[in-house]
Amino acid sequence: MSIDVHAHCVPADLFAALEAEGAALGIELTDDRRAVIAGGKATMPIREDLIDFDARLAAMDEAGIETQVLSSWIDLTAYGLDAKDGERWSRRVNEALAEEAGRRPERFLALATAPLQEPEMAASELRYATEQLGMVGIEIATRVGDGDLVSAALDPLWAVAEKLGSLVLLHPVDPLPGIDLKRHFLENMVGRPAETTIAAARLMFAGVFDRYPELRVCLVHGGGFLPYQVGRMQRGWEAKPGVAATDLATPPMEAVRGLYYDTIVHNPLALRYLIDLVGADRIMLGTDYPFEAGDLDPLATLESVPNLTDEERHLIVSGNASAVLAQ
Fold first, then answer.
1. Is the pTM of the predicted complex or chain greater than 0.85?
2. Taking residues 88-114, what's their average pLDDT?
């Protein structure tokens, strides 16, 4: 078995709802298929391959992916809506994703979204999505509006996610506002991994992972830059304890081993380093389907990793995800 934990989807029914009643949901769809959430900036056009069910299955078959965990396109994460509209939008997304996964339950699982702008509502939506819709976790963005995940006071969500054993897929969105990264694809190549690094480091140093030690958080894109600069964080935690260690009791080198990571690093040597740093039991297969900057042939990537053992391969391809996603 092979399980892809990082793949995006806009179900056809959800797209049709945006076309028919998007304004009433607080999300307007432009003529060129861009979503404008609560008067904010427009997304990129919603791609057909996010919607096309048969094309998704064909791509999975070609790549040797047996099971894909569907999550919403992160650009449609509507934390900019007011709380009630955000709750209503999250429910529409979750019901659509659960129905999409239910079309071929032997091939698909699904992650929820939730209105993080209101933590109690978010916790309630995750519980509903898990217990009533059969979803296996939640995808969350790296920021909530202009604030970070720490200032968003998400303890109600963390508590429910830990209790339910939910996978929490942390995904970058709108990377590094205020910094011009539009040229040369830098927004994606540099901005997105940096966004993940900042969000994960803030959660770590705020003690969130200490308070919720059973939380199952997966950092996409191989953890951004976090695993590759954790030595610097360890040094800061040791050298400046009055600043860096006020809320974090666990050494950063140990804390990174409590998280999960996908395989999307695009370099077999980097993936080998990640395996050696955190352990093969903390890494899961990812594609970032359908985006070109993802890894649409992750099994081939894994086979190119130096000195990969059969046990490491098994854990990364399916063993870890099977354990994490078991409800």
1. yes
2. 97
